[in-house]
Specification:
The complex is a heterotetramer, with two copies of chain A (83 residues) and two copies of chain B (149 residues). Chain A is built from three helices and five strands. Chain A has a single domain, classed as Ubiquitin-like (UB roll). A five-stranded mixed β-sheet of chain A has the order 2-1-5-3-4. Chain A is an alpha+beta fold and 83 residues long. In chain A, strand 3 and strand 4 form a beta hairpin. Chain B has 149 residues and is α+β, with helices and mostly antiparallel strands. Chain B has a single domain, classed as Molybdopterin biosynthesis MoaE subunit (Aldehyde Oxidoreductase, domain 3, Alpha-Beta Complex). Chain B is built from four helices and nine strands, in the order βαβββαβββαββα. In chain B, the strands form two sheets. In chain B, strands 3, 4, 6, 8 and 9 form a five-stranded antiparallel β-sheet that branches. In chain B, strands 1-5-7-2 form a four-stranded mixed β-sheet, with helices on both faces. In chain B, strand 3 and strand 4 form a beta hairpin. In chain B, helix 2 packs antiparallel against helix 3 and helix 3 crosses helix 4. In chain B, 42% of the residues are buried. Classes of the chains: A alpha+beta (83), B alpha+beta (149). Chains in contact: A-B, B-C, C-D. Chains B and C meet through helix 1, strand 2 and helix 3 of B and helix 1, strand 2 and helix 3 of C.
């Protein structure tokens, strides 16, 4: 699974993307986040306030209980500030 | 049309091009967003816009389509820049064309409000001794919500 | 600033001039009204704008002042042409500058709505075999009323 | 008193301005209109539908009962259609 990070989430984690091979019990975005925060303190810090985290699956904004699988591109980012 | 680019744009060139491409244009509304020279009361050195390339095109096309469903538009253009920009640089251009003023004006307003909260861009402001990511404003959220997308 | 003139205007030139004259500009809204090539479904030959010279300046200044009382504007420009104009010709330009987008957008919208019903101009449309004075639209009155001047 | 006419009111009356010396019983815009429509049929036609006539005194929009005197500039015109 391709996972992308933007803005200060990228800065906290220290990379802008990574390829993860996930085991079968990670079925939703929520499961993925619960896995990521076990990797190290940087991830834990990045996801410490979920009210300011947004996520997309294959470039569409989705909810935290969205089903995901290994072919998907998942991205995490703060609220957008375009324009 | 959607363009996401590092280069600057010309308001006159884009406006003329759109007017010539269409018949019976009666109203042209445009909005330009510009990098201001202050960031939280400090002198700004630069603002770097990061975006999510694949998603930007998808989302901007989606919202442009929304505008056409709501108003009678003859044409429209959104140009959004990314990369490092400096005070006075253009960030974004929205142009809408219609027969009657109401459609162009409202569609332009809608598109720029929407870009503020749903355009997949993030801004990093560099000041003399520090830098920070710009937080989304709750006021922008409220502005966007009034369009009831 | 108010200009009532027969000559055409350049959007880019006027916009750049205003941006350079002001500090910390973050938002530039503009509106251009253009002569359409149809008048009541007939091909238009020309549109002649008559105005009441002394009154135009007075009234346009008054309404520009209103806009500054309602929104935080850095600058503004209204150019309104008069005389005989042809399809595709520019009629009117409104530009507003502010720090934040909401002020520029709303002020620009307000000014153009107001010009429609309170700008002392009258339009004569010439078509192939006839001509007529353009009637004010009730819909324009309603648009203007929502600003509660 | 200088009186100006615009748009189709001008066309109906056949002139765009005139200087009138008025007697003392013409005190308001309304009095002026009542006088004008006695001049000839063209004036009568121009002022036949008062719902589409607007008027100004010295370049300010005024009501029909506005007081006027010989130094004023009065103008008659249809609803404005700028922009």
């Amino acid at each position: 699974m391709k996972v992308l990070y933007f803005s200060w989430i990228k800065d906290n984690i220290g990379k802008n993307e990574e390829d993860l091979s996930l085991n079968d019990n990670i079925k939703t975005i929520s499961d993925l986040i619960n896995y990521l925060i076990t990797i190290n303190e940087n991830y834990k810090k990045a996801f410490s306030d979920m009210s300011i985290i947004r996520f997309s699956k294959n470039m569409n904004l989705v909810n935290i209980d969205e089903m995901i699988d290994n072919d998907d591109e998942i991205a995490f980012f703060p609220p957008m500030t375009g324009g | 049309m959607i363009k996401v680019q590092t280069e600057n744009f010309s308001l006159e060139k884009e406006t003329k091009n759109l007017i010539h491409k269409n018949n019976n244009v009666g109203a042209v509304s445009s909005f330009i967003g510009i990098v201001r020279d202050k960031a939280k009361e400090k002198d700004l050195i630069s603002m770097t816009l990061e975006h999510y390339p694949g998603m930007t095109q998808t989302m901007l096309k989606k919202i442009e389509k929304q505008a056409y469903l709501r108003w009678k538009l003859l044409d429209s253009l959104i140009i959004h820049r990314y990369g490092e920009l400096f005070p006075g640089d253009n960030i974004v251009l929205v142009i809408t064309l219609s027969k009657h003023r109401k459609d162009a004006i409202n569609a332009c307003h809608f598109l720029i409000d929407w870009l503020k909260t749903k355009g997949p861009f993030w801004k990093y402001e560099k000041t003399k001794n520090s830098g920070h990511w710009v937080e989304a404003l709750e006021s922008d959220n409220l502005e966007e919500k009034k369009w009831d997308i």
